[in-house]
Amino acid sequence: MNRDDRTSEDAAPNQESWWFNDVATFRIDHFIRIISAIRAKGTRAEIIGKCIIEYAKKWLSGMDVEIEGLRGYGHEKYNLQFSIFSGKKKESSGHNKEQKTIIETLISIIPPQPYAVSYKFMLQLLKMAMMYYVSPALATELEKRVSMVLEDAEEKR
């Protein structure tokens, strides 16, 4: 079924997102250029966020997979720490470097608006950032974003 064969009910939820799969096929350097261009045109942060999520699903192996050896611990109300051990599969260093580059790039282009990307996605990205030892500055930035969402959720409760 192509885009033109869909009924109006089928097409309605996908009118803004039909191009996500197409954009997700590009290398990360081209993807950044596309995101920059659509951001400059005034595209809503939620649309950009959904596009980033689609890209991550395509290019980051293990984005939706639970990681063996990931343990959360902490005793205080706002203390959440993770430790990753012996669960990471051995892969070629070229693949690891590519994955690290993609993770760092995606973290750096997430729109600053709250809820531009889902909380679940940010946690998955943070998990992968820890696995691939991304830049401490980027990991800290993502941790801050996650904590802001948690604080906001606590206030609304």
Automatic annotation (TrEMBL):
Q: Which UniProt keywords apply?
A: Ubl conjugation pathway
Q: Name all NPH3 domain ranges.
A: 17-157
InterPro entries in UniProt: NPH3/RPT2-like, NPH3_dom
Looking at the keywords, is Metal-binding present?
no
* Single GO biological process annotation from the record: protein ubiquitination
Q: What family does the database annotate?
A: Belongs to the NPH3 family.
PANTHER family (alphabetical): OS12G0117600 PROTEIN (PTHR32370)
- The name this protein carries in UniProt is NPH3 domain-containing protein
Its gene name is: Vigan.11G217500
